[in-house]
Design a protein that fits this description.
- By secondary structure, the protein is mostly beta strands.
- The chain is about 0% helix and about 45% strand.
- The chain has three helices and 29 strands.
- The strands form six sheets. Strands 19, 20, 21, 22, 23, 24, 25, 26, 27, 28 and 29 form an eleven-stranded antiparallel beta sheet that branches. It has a four-stranded antiparallel beta sheet with strand order 1-8-3-6, with no helix packed on it. A four-stranded antiparallel beta sheet has the order 2-7-4-5, with no helix packed on it.
- The protein starts with 16 loop residues before the first helix and ends with a strand.
Length: about 575
């Protein structure tokens, strides 16, 4: 019987709050190439991450003659099918905010100074990370703070022996309040470099500011961007809209980086959690439930025991980790009293005392410029019973079926200079999954769906406004370790969203997103890297269309060669 060795996908990175924020080093990574007998979906071997755009949108792809019979010592630089950040044709100013080589768990520390020559009300602010690494290395998780505000979270690519370059872009315009002031910079991509893991992560991060001018106006952004102070939040007393961002990340520290595979007792599986795989990220204000959300089931770039799935195309969001957003406006009347209020973020389903999740919080605030104090009240907090049921069925194919879900409604009003404004937030979560595996976990499979539906209704400032968002995340994969030690992973991931905004019953904006990844890769386990004889095909199709137009791009790779890169609409 082969028994899987449980590996951390972001090996050596224990995401307790202290370690992730650079307070101390984590244990060294277990050698990925020493022994990997396990066929377990989310386990990682080598690693990958970031967002390169080095291939032109309609670049000619490789041909069958260009495609090798198996992976070699080099492959295409990592890239995704996601659209580049649109830039206005106005004056721009670039500021380098971090430039470092990450070899250990020592944060880069520097100072940010606002740009000169582009004003202080920008139409767009774009972050860009450029990096390179060569040799052997795990995927690593990283963050960037300016003035204490987390503006970026990412993971890194696993390199080829010959080396790779990559880049990531992100629209960070919403943090303009932070960028108008100088402040401390802290960046960390925790890494371990030794005789086996030789990859030094060499990165540079810049911010490019685009001025307003002509028909290009400054962007509508929050008036303030706040962080918690010792777990408390003090908002300006004239706040009329409040949104919390939580960069919730399950990674490092064992099984929580593949929480969607955990099982309760008595199921015989290597990753345990008391109540199984259901996870829910909750935010509370002064101990009262204020928001719920499904975490995105990110597959890091060494995941599912098969690095050959991710060398060129990562899974959705692995390069640009998006925060969960909670509309806390119903609580504005409570928060606007000028006193600090306790803000707590927790993850339902994590076994007591177990680490593995990091959840830093930014708070975006819009203020009433014509009133020093905006009073109001929280009028409703109703929550359904949290459903979390896992059923274990023993057999030659062990099976765990999970059903989970929850709903929450909050409502409140604020008395502003333009009248009383009511805000109601309704959110409904649901998760179903079927996990089956064989003795020894030599076959391990999961099919799961998560939905997160949110409706925000604003009544009192003109016609009633309604914003509806329906999010769906999917995962369908199987990893099998055959008797000849050939390990094969077949996997499909989906990130979908439908958003609509109406005013007075009339739709004013809408969008539909469908980001789908598919991969099939096979290699020989338990042998040195140069004897793996790996083959694999991967693809991504990113479709985004709606009232702002459309974008559609397809990428396909084989054995690390980009064989198709096509854009259409």
């Amino acid at each position: 019987m082969r028994r899987r060795i449980v590996m951390s996908m972001l090996a050596g990175v224990i995401l307790s709050a202290s370690t992730f924020l650079g307070a101390g080093p984590a244990p060294a990574a277990v050698p990925a190439d020493a022994a990997r007998p396990a066929a377990s979906p989310a386990r990682s071997t080598d690693r990958v991450a970031a967002t390169p755009r080095d291939a032109p949108f309609d670049a000619p792809a490789g041909t069958a003659a260009d495609t090798p019979a198996e992976f070699g010592t080099d492959w295409h630089d990592p890239l995704t099918a996601a659209p580049p950040v649109a830039r206005p044709a106005t004056t721009s100013c670039a500021v380098t905010v971090a430039e470092a080589q990450f070899r250990d768990f020592t944060p880069y520390r520097g100072t940010y100074t606002p740009p000169s020559g582009c004003g202080d009300r920008w139409s767009k602010v774009v972050l860009r990370l450029d990096g390179n690494v060569k040799g052997r290395q795990f995927d690593r998780l990283g963050y960037l703070h300016i003035g204490g505000v987390e503006i970026f979270r990412t993971s890194t690519p696993e390199p080829s022996p010959d080396g790779i370059e990559w880049s990531v872009e992100k629209d960070v315009t919403r943090y303009s309040d932070t960028f108008r002031r100088g402040g401390d910079v802290e960046m960390l991509i925790g890494n371990v470099v030794d005789d086996t893991y030789t990859g030094v992560l060499d990165v540079k991060v810049t911010l490019t500011f685009y001025a307003q001018g002509g028909a290009v106006k400054s962007a509508a952004t929050p008036d303030r961007v706040l962080t918690l102070q010792d777990g408390t939040l003090t908002t300006p007393r004239n706040s009329e809209r409040i949104v919390a961002e939580v960069y919730a990340t399950g990674s490092g520290g064992g099984c929580e980086e593949y929480w969607y595979l955990t099982v309760p007792d008595p199921a015989p599986y290597s990753c345990k959690a008391d109540k199984g795989p259901y996870r829910e990220v909750q935010i509370k204000v002064d101990g009262q439930l204020a928001g719920i959300a499904e975490p995105f089931p990110t597959v890091w770039t060494g995941g599912w025991s098969n690095p050959f799935l991710w060398y060129v195309i990562p899974g959705p969001r692995a390069f640009d980790i998006k925060p969960i957003e909670y509309d806390l406006t119903p609580y504005a009347g409570v928060l606007n009293d000028g006193r600090p209020h306790r803000i707590d973020v927790s993850v339902v389903g994590v076994p007591a005392g177990q680490s593995g999740w990091s959840a830093p919080v930014d708070v975006l605030v819009w203020q009433d410029a014509k009133r020093a104090h905006v009073s109001g009240a929280l009028t409703e907090v109703r929550a359904g019973d949290l459903t979390n049921s896992s059923t274990y069925t023993p057999g030659s194919q062990e099976r765990l079926d999970t059903v989970g879900g929850h709903w929450l409604t909050t409502a409140g009003y604020v008395d502003t200079s333009h009248g009383r404004v009511w805000t109601t937030v309704r959110r409904t979560l649901a998760n179903t999954s079927a996990h089956h595996w064989t003795d020894g976990e030599n076959t391990d499979a999961l099919k799961a769906t998560w939905t997160d539906d949110e409706t925000v209704t604003v009544d009192g400032r003109g016609p009633v406004g309604v914003r509806r968002t329906h999010r769906t995340y999917t995962m369908d994969g199987t990893t099998t370790l055959a008797a000849d030690d050939r390990l094969r992973t077949v996997l499909t991931l989906g990130d979908r969203a439908a958003a609509d905004e109406t005013r007075g019953g009339r739709r004013i904006t809408w969008s539909r997103l469908d980001d789908t990844y598919a991969g099939d890769a096979t290699y020989t386990a338990n042998v040195p890297r140069d004897q793996r004889h790996a083959v694999g095909t991967t693809s991504e199709r990113y479709r985004l269309y709606g009232s702002d137009g459309c974008y559609d791009r397809v990428l396909v790779t084989a054995q690390g060669v980009l064989t198709r890169d096509r854009g259409d609409c």
